[in-house]
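Re: beginner question about structure tokens

> Can someone show what the tokenized structure looks like for a real chain? I only ever see the sequence side.

Sure, here's an example I had lying around. Input first:
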Amino acid sequence: MTSNYEVRSGGRAVARKSASTAHEALFDYLRGLGCRDGEIVRMGSDAAAWRGAIYKVVPADDELLNGAA
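And the corresponding structure tokens:
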């Protein structure tokens, strides 16, 4: 089963991903930026650093994804 996640950097949302886990959503996003696995510094199950930036994944608000206010 997949869940919707929001990837954040510096307190702002930079992407929304659908994945089985927060870790999977984050690594999918970072790989899409061109990051290699060896360049990622894992900081727990929901956060990682790459090139000095820290990325965190939080569950996405499904109401926003579906267009409801």
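Each token stands for a local structural state, so reading them left to right follows the chain. The two ends are 25 Å apart (CA to CA).
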